[in-house]
Amino acid sequence: MIPSRPLLIQIITRIIYGVVLLTGTTSQFLLAQTDVTPRIQLEPVSGSTPELIRLLEEKSGWVISYSSRLPIPERGQLSGHEKTLLQHVSHLFKDAQFSYTIRSNRLILTPPPKREIKHTISGFVREAGSMESLPAANIYTSPDFKGTVSNNYGFFSITLIPGKHTLNASYVGYQTESKPLELNNDTVIVFNLQPHLLLGEIDVVGQLSYAQLNAARMGNILIPIHEIKQTPALLGETDIVKNIQMLPGIQGGSEGFSGLYVRGGGPDQNLILLDDVPIYNIGHLLGFFSVFNADAVKHVSVLKSGFPARYGGRISSVIDIRMLEGNNERVEGNINVGLLSSGVSLNGPVQKDRSGFAISFRRTYMDAIAALAQRGQEETTNYYFFDLNAKYNHIINDKNRLYLSAYWGRDKYMTTYNFVDLTLNNGSPGGEPLRTTINDENNAGWGNVVTALRWNHVFNQRLFGNLTATFSDYRFFIGVERNHEINNNWDSFEQRYISGIRDYSVKVDFDYYPANNHQVKFGLNAIQHEFNPGVDVVQRSPGTSQPVDTTLGDVRLTGGEYHFYLEDEFTLMRKLRVNAGARYVLFNGNDKFYHSLEPRISLNYELSPMWNMRTAYSHMSQFIHLVSSSNVALPTDLWLPVTETIPPMYSRQVSLGTDWKSGFNQNYSISGDVYYKQMKNLLHYKESTGFFDYSTEWEDKLTGGDGESYGLELILRKNNGDFTGWLSYTLAKTTNQFEEINNGRSFPARFDRRHDINLNLKYQFNERIDGNLNWQFGSGTPITLPSEKYFAPDFPFLDESPGSGFSEDAVSLNQYRMPPFHRMDVGFNFSKQRDRTERIWSLGVINLYGRQNPFLLYFASDSNSEPGSAQRNLKQLSLFPFPIPYVRWTLIF
């Protein structure tokens, strides 16, 4: 629906107004008047306000008159720049609202009419006790619901007229706090909210009404961390990504894996941020578990559309994960013991009320179990992974705060076999022979290292700034070692494939609050990418000659990525909430520049207090690609930059949605979204080209194409009471088309799943016991199967030769679909509170009714068939074909 011309003019006017405010023009005086005051050059000076006014009068020859009703500061300062008299005065009176009049050589300052006087309330929303900041908290007045939302660091600013007000702060999983106040001047308020998981006992009417009215962003979903911890988990491993996969419009790919396919996009099209740092691989154990330790996380936000301008660099989704900051008041922590891994978390003050730390460590003991099971065996297989999260925060003063956060995670796999005992001559006459053991070995490893250093600064009650420097490094390797005996000499061969991506980034972000229900965000970001598309190292030590060391495909690329964004969020006519902005991206790769201008807009209109409509348009670009060689997102997938032959990816997405809540207590809610998305310049391996094809350059192995996705998403929620939960349904279709693949015909995308259903139910039996049930259903995903098999001898004039074999041919890509997927998981949490600790036992079953869901389909021949009449059967491989119980023990102290 296109807005009428007056409404459109109002929207444009408000955006321009926000831009004007950002250029430094103050709203404290009437902008329409012409500044005819003389220009003055001053040295930087500070002192009492009357002294500075007299100095300005001496330098300008003008008289400055001001009303005694103006809130004049006792002391001030003047900058050393050349400015007009009016600009110097505006700087001196920057915290006072005034109007001015010019008569002859006199500047007269008067307070605005009382109805125009407004004061600003700013501050932070934090968790009581730990002092953790709470991002995206609702701050609003009652009963008129004027308000705002805290930023990622809990800061908020709201402007109100003088008088009596009641200011409220609310956050999911916390009790709402209300503060009555008599507002006579600018005020600083800190809300300390108490955690409260029994949401049914909280008055949530005001909280949900304000959140519904002001949620301008489409597809923005906040997942409370306590809900994630209560969800049944495979082998007891609490997994953030598994919870995200259950949201409408998001798929996980194959069963058990931690990939994310959002509205037809691939895993590389998701901007996954851990404390503002991109994570390039999110899987442990080849993707069965994610790298995010729930004990180290406080906030998870998921955006599928309507992306604000402050996010960029990917074209499908944003997963914004924030780590715990550290308790500045007291030491606390927890210990987790599960079937697969255990972890410990600790946080507390370094200097009470000033600084705090949070540290979490998780490690699997699969290698220890395997070592016991394989004791005495020469052939062994070993695997382990670990995560280390750490964060430090320091409050310098009321306006400045520092954060230092880091993550280190690693996976390591190794198998050893073919052990041989050797006796070698040590090379000296009469010397004792050397005895040694050699073996063959396969190994692989991958992992992330990320760090972030950030500085928060409150410039004034309306302007908040954040400066961040980040580092992200992702590497993987695959290796093989072989030993061969040739003429009584041993030939050693080693091959190692290495690849990865490394980022250095600096960015600055500002939040500006020019008026009530009006927030402007703007900032800059610079990223230096370092790519290693793949280097294959071959080392050979022949028994009769010198060692040989060969390096193949050692190509190292760099790319510079620069972002600037401007975002304005405001309310029109009390019912229309607008988030409008744009992002400009410049990418420099291989001495070639690419650029993209990305407009974004989201509209939310209140049809009634319980019903709203929303729509959004987003244009996104992406200058790095992930090229996959399998149907599963594995750590061996390659990250590649834009080059002269590989253009950037683009997407355009339009969404339309609605939210409805029942009754005054809003016990039930329904949300629905429809979307359409176009994707340009997707990458795919060419046909007959693979991962270890050294005959061509890596760019020549790839081809580009386009994609299209559209769908419907519905979700029904029960919000309050002992029994809560939600049911979601997704209807979607995604197709791809590549000129050099599938004869140029379009085909279903890799995880084009037509129907998805997710059911999540929770029941609070009492304060100590709760239960959770999840049921998932998904129609079959596309698969390519050969439609014919034929004999292919080496020489056409021979019937058969030792090298003869069979070839298979598929008529079309993804022309078949796998059987449907469905699974039920149940879990129970039993807690017991003691004086200083809480003990929780978590028990449950994954795949309760033993559904054999397909992971892989393949053809197998019947070896007992008569010659010339072999039958081929299509068979299925299932990863979890039976119920899998789990148990986890948690101690909170």
State the gist of this model.
The protein is mainly beta and 893 residues long. Helix content is 8%, strand content 55%. 38% of the residues are buried.
Cα-based radius of gyration, to the nearest Å: 32 Å
Mean pLDDT: 82
* Secondary-structure-derived class: mainly beta
The CATH topology of the largest domain corresponds to Maltoporin, Chain A
Low-confidence stretches: 1-9, 15-32, 198-216
- CATH architecture title of the largest domain: Beta Barrel
CATH class division of the largest domain:
Mainly Beta
Shape: globular
Helical segment count: 7
Biggest sheet statistics: 22 strands, antiparallel, barrel
Number of domains: 3
Strand content: over 45%
- As a percent range, the share of helical residues equals under 10%
Distance between the termini: 54 Å
Instruction: Give the beta-strand count.
Output: 55
Assign the CATH superfamily of the largest domain.
Answer: TonB-dependent receptor, beta-barrel domain
